[in-house]
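Input structure tokens:
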């Protein structure tokens, strides 16, 4: 299933995410995913596994043009020249000459002037053909408005936390208004039970409504949630290093949710974010230095 971005580039709707995938497991996970049928891999400079993603793609034996590669600029590389160099680092680690989608990882509101300069660098990379599409991640509607007032190229994608317990309708509406594709990270609610972001979380994988829909279709809760994203026109990038889970997450193209089922899942939204708030600066985290491609 392909989605067409606002600049005409097509992107596989379902991708493999590698957030928190240990480098030593990432190469095998990518290779497994590509053997399963995935053709879209999402990584980021901040994940520390771009090199292993590139190795997994090479080991797959697939032609470069058959794999859609998405990666992200970290905040410590914001600024015009810095973001141009972030591209050098990314392609050097991935072992490619062009990126399919290059996005800013955070709005970083405490240094938004640098964010805007970084985005202008992405516009240059797009014009030069070094990337095929550009976008943003974790941008709320007010961040998008500020960005669009100061730049020329609409983001093709806005990647945000989005799952049944946190569906971000205002963000989805703003993205739709500007013809920006909504891409879901934590699409099956994984971060709702990651350690470190708070306690007393409800695990969306055990939600009785989703369990009922899954039972009706002979599918798993994860498959139902991914189908929910796809049928509503979103991209989703589930993360796994487990071969069985990687295969399960891709087996979502042979059933369809009813309008009532989609509405029931929509109604689960709590409005409560599980990941970090994009409006809260994290200076120590933002200062993390991204290593050069050579000499690591």
């Amino acid at each position: 299933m392909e989605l067409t971005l606002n600049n005409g580039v097509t992107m596989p709707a379902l991708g493999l995410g590698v957030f928190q995938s240990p480098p030593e497991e990432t190469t095998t996970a990518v290779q497994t995913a590509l053997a399963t049928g995935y053709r879209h891999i999402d990584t980021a400079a901040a994940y520390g596994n771009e090199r292993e993603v590139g190795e997994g793609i090479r080991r797959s034996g697939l032609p470069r043009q058959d794999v859609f590669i998405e990666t992200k600029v970290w905040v410590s590389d914001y600024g015009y020249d810095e973001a141009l160099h972030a591209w050098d680092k990314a392609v050097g680690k991935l072992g490619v000459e062009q990126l399919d989608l290059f996005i800013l990882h955070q709005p970083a509101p405490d240094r938004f002037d640098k964010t805007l300069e970084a985005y202008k660098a992405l516009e240059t990379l797009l014009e030069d053909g070094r990337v095929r599409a550009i976008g943003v991640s974790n941008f709320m509607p007010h961040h998008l408005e500020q960005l669009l007032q100061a730049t020329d190229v609409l983001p093709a994608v806005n990647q945000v936390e989005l799952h049944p317990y946190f569906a971000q309708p205002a963000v989805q509406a703003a993205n739709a208004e500007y013809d920006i594709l909504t891409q879901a990270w934590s699409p099956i609610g994984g971060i709702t039970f990651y350690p470190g972001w708070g306690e007393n979380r409800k695990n969306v994988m055990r939600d009785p409504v989703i369990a009922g829909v899954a039972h009706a279709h002979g599918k798993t809760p994860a498959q139902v949630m991914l189908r929910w994203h796809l049928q509503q026109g979103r991209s989703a990038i589930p993360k796994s290093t487990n071969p069985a889970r990687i295969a399960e997450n891709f087996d979502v193209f042979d059933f369809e949710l009813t309008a009532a089922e989609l509405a029931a899942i929509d109604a689960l939204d709590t409005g409560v974010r599980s990941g970090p708030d994009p409006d809260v600066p994290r200076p120590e985290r933002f200062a993390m230095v991204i290593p050069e491609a050579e000499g690591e």
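The chain has one domain: 2-286. Residues 37 and 209 are 29 Å apart (CA to CA).
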